[in-house]
Specification:
With 344 residues, the protein is an alpha+beta fold. The protein folds into two domains: 7-99, Penicillin Amidohydrolase, domain 1 (Orthogonal Bundle); 108-343, Penicillin V Acylase, Chain A. The chain has eleven helices and 14 strands. The protein has helices at residues 14-24, 26-44, 48-55, 59-65, 67-80, 84-91, 93-99, 187-194, 200-210, 266-280, 287-294; strands spanning 7-12, 108-113, 124-131, 136-143, 148-154, 158-163, 168-173, 215-220, 226-232, 235-239, 245-248, 313-321, 326-331, 340-343. Strands 11-2-3-12-13-14 form a six-stranded antiparallel beta sheet, with helices on one face. A hairpin with a 4-residue loop joins strand 12 and strand 13 (326-331). The two termini are 20 Å apart. The model has no long low-confidence stretch (mean pLDDT 92).
Length: 344
């Protein structure tokens, strides 16, 4: 039997969930928090005091939007022995870098298939997470109301979540030059509420309100629904499958968002490669087929399974089947790492 990846098991109310999360990932979280604070201070020549002052501008909107998540962050801050402002900084780091006019453009490749595209008609959602070197942690949240979530945490900066209702999410970075910056809901603070919803309809209703800027989200649920949302600072567009397939990489598919976008060149090639491979297996797609696709090296090293480049490499890969509440996770490049199965 293969050794399972370590999962941090968290149970209780919001504060207890956050405290146990912090304790379970203490070494990773404490180190990355200080490294990122120092990095932002150096890169933008600003003081810690100024960074935390700007961080706290996000607090009122986050507290109004999701007081439950604020309690989780308070528990985490207590476990790590840091000020709440520092924990909130880490959840807002993407928006703060936008504020200081810096763009990071890591890459990802996402697949959603259902119905006639798959071997048994079930829905399958999956992604390669391509990013800069961050530690990957697996967290299992057992909420007091009975909801369970399995989260793939990217250095405690953001989480890819699958819940016991059978709702899963993928995220891809998009890039576009914006004329001005406005303080908006931080992505690292709004997704947890989205992923406490019972289906894609309720989850997407929230994303329509808060998803703005630089991330594409793709959802799937146990009812076989798949949808995505692209956004810019003041607009969004919902994407739906064609022939039971929805694919995405790191450029906009919405025509009105394309002017001004700054996508990585290999995004277009990776999307075409995804289309080719999915079409080759159309009608017979299984989780095992997706494992093969995510290990594809066409265009190496900036391939679907990414091994090099200044925009990072594949840190993890996951595949979810919402109907059976089953996920397969490979930490590291999927060509080198085994996919291990988890239930939610």
């Amino acid at each position: 039997m293969e050794r399972m990846y370590h999962v941090v098991d968290c149970r209780g109310n919001a504060y207890e969930l956050g405290r146990q999360w912090g304790e379970g990932c203490m070494e990773i979280n404490a180190e990355l928090l200080q490294l990122n604070l120092a990095s932002v201070m150096t890169e933008f020549n600003v003081s810690k005091q100024e960074i935390l002052h700007n961080t706290m501008k996000f607090l009122p909107m986050v507290k109004q939007y999701d007081p439950y998540f604020i309690e989780m962050l308070e528990g985490q801050a207590s476990a790590l022995g840091v000020n709440f402002e520092e924990i909130l900084f880490y959840r807002c780091i993407g928006e703060l870098k936008d504020y200081y006019q810096h763009k990071e453009e890591p890459l990802c490749s996402t697949i959603g298939v259902t119905g006639k595209a798959t071997a048994d008609g079930m829905t399958i959602l999956g992604q390669n997470i391509d990013w800069f070197p961050y530690e990957i942690s697996l967290i299992k949240f057992h909420h007091d109301n009975g909801l369970e979530q399995l989260a793939i945490s990217l250095g405690n900066y953001n989480e890819y979540i699958f819940n016991s209702f059978g709702v899963g999410v993928c995220m891809n970075t998009t890039a576009r030059k914006e004329d001005h910056y406005s303080f908006r809901m931080p992505q690292g603070c709004y997704l947890h509420k989205v992923m406490r919803q019972k289906d894609t309809h309720h989850a997407m209703d929230i994303l329509k309100q808060v998803a703005r800027g630089y991330t594409y989200f793709q959802l799937a649920d146990a009812d076989g629904q798949i949808c995505g949302i692209e956004s810019i600072s003041d607009d969004f567009e919902i994407l739906y499958p064609e022939r039971d397939v929805l694919l995405h990489t790191n450029h906009y598919l919405t025509p009105r968002f394309i002017p001004g976008e700054t996508p990585p060149e290999d995004s277009f090639r990776r999307l075409e490669r995804l289309k080719t491979l999915v079409n080759e297996h159309y009608g017979h797609i299984t989780p095992e087929i997706l494992m093969q696709i995510f290990a594809d090296h066409s265009g190496y090293p900036t391939s679907i399974c990414r091994h090099a480049g200044n925009l990072g490499r594949t840190l993890a890969s996951f595949i979810m089947v919402p109907e059976t509440r089953t996920a397969w996770i490979a930490i590291g490049n999927p060509c080198e790492s085994s996919y291990l199965q988890y239930k939610v």
